[in-house]
Amino acid sequence: MGQRDFITGLMFVVVLGGCASSEPMQSCGWIYSVGVTPAARDIHPLTVDAIDGDNVNEREMRPLTPGSHELKVYEQIKDSRLAVNARNRGESQILKIDVADGQIYYLGAQFLPDKRYSARNDYWQPVVWKQEARPCP
Asked: How many CA atoms lie within 13 A of 11 on its CB side?
């Protein structure tokens, strides 16, 4: 294991704030960013690249400590109506989220069809499209 892998792993542990412990957690919330999204509502998958400024490896579901968090996210929109050239896509956006204990937040990229020709990054916005109860491990 190289020093960079060790530092990345250490940052991951710090970001989780103890959520990955084998002992039961006192409190946690969850984010879910991969999987089926309601495309009929123009909501598509997104990728989480960083949490509170720390880079993370993409995972389907991730526990977080309760409180305010900033997620750096990228859209994964696959919609034939999107008229933005591929080289003009790929810019991140920040999603601010207040995580509550025992809740899971389903994240998505909301496609804004009325801005589908925009060469800027305003043809989408990150959203929480569903929230429900989920206990900590």
From this structure: 14
Type of residue numbered 22: S
CA distances from 42 to 17, 59, 85, 99 (A): 33, 22, 19, 24
Which of 87, 92, 31, 94 is CA-nearest to residue 62?
31
Q: Which structure tokens are listed for 46? A: 């997104």
Locate tokens 């990054």: which residue? 121
- pTM summary value: 0.75
User: Phi and psi dihedrals of 72, rounded to 5?
Assistant: -90, 120
pLDDT tens profile 71-100: 999 999 988 898 887 777 878 999 999 999
| 68 within 8 A of 98, measured Cβ to Cβ | yes
